[in-house]
Amino acid sequence: xxxxxxxxxxxxxxxxxxxxxxxxxxxxxxxxxxxxxxxxxxxxxxxxxxxxxxxxxxxxxxxxxxxxxxxxxxxxxxxxxxxxxxxxxxxxxxxxxxxxxxxxxxxxxxxxxxxxxxxxxxxxxxxxxxxxxxxxxxxxxxxxxxxxxxxxxxxxxxxxxxxxxxxxxxxxxxxxxxxxxxxxxxxxxxxxxxxxxxxxxxxxxxxxxxxxxxxxxxxxxxxxxxxxxxxxxxxxxxxxxxxxxxxxxxxxxxxxxxxxxxxxxxxxxxxxxxxxxxxxxxxxxxxxxxxxxxxxxxxxxxxxxxxxxxxxxxxxxxxxxxxxxxxxxxxxxxxxxxxxxxxxxxxxxxxxxx
Length: 354
What we know:
The protein has helices at residues 15-36, 40-49, 68-88, 90-111, 122-126, 128-148, 154-178, 188-213, 218-245, 248-251, 257-260, 266-272, 277-287, 295-307, 310-332, 336-350, and strands at 115-116, 119-120. The chain is mainly alpha-helical.
């Protein structure tokens, strides 16, 4: 359940930037209205999380995120059903963004992340229980949007989003359980499957919901789901690379936090299973207890991951996943002009540097 926190932004005026701006313009008012319907205490936490308020309740102009997932919903609907379908899919786009932020609130508690979007996380300000409850409320709001939506696809969309949430939770459960296992007792296939559930599932669901609201047939819905999943895996691979070698000033998160916590991210597991001398060294380092603030140890681990091929593997695998995503997209939207928006968004989330 990872957030798309792109470091390298597209050039001003690029297609992806324009799509995201249009999506945010139509989604934000509906999302604010949904959040404002919450009881006062939950509303305050949610508004803080979205960057709309400071902790004391005064207005803020912080970022509510890039709107990648709602943009995928709207762009998929437009690609298959035109502007009318895109307009009718706004509630579905808002629902996906609410679910995404439900996962972020919970993730931050479970991972003990101190910052998100360059400000303290909700749990550090309001406490674990309130952050969890606010996340639960956002998920409920998402389902209420579908219940109130007269669109004929709303019921099917609600089922699909619910199944996606279950998959997200299952992926998070596997991830949590995996952290208790020995570093050498985790396979690369396991971690890839877990990453698809945690990250790829919601991107795929977003694309599939757009297809449903466009009245697409089953094959096209599934192809767009697969497109989003593969693009999501490409994103996660690059995000894991950035999590180890990225610039904290650009990501808003401390570099090497996953290494300090001995997380079994994709580059780490690829390095651990490489069979190289560096992989044995990495296994020894990962078996040592984490000492808070020991940045030197984190740097040694990062170097071992790189020497064992983890960074190179992740970058090559990300390119392969993007190629698969393009194949799936061409199945559902064979016309390049119609597919251009989805392609631009997929490139946006994966074209980043560490």
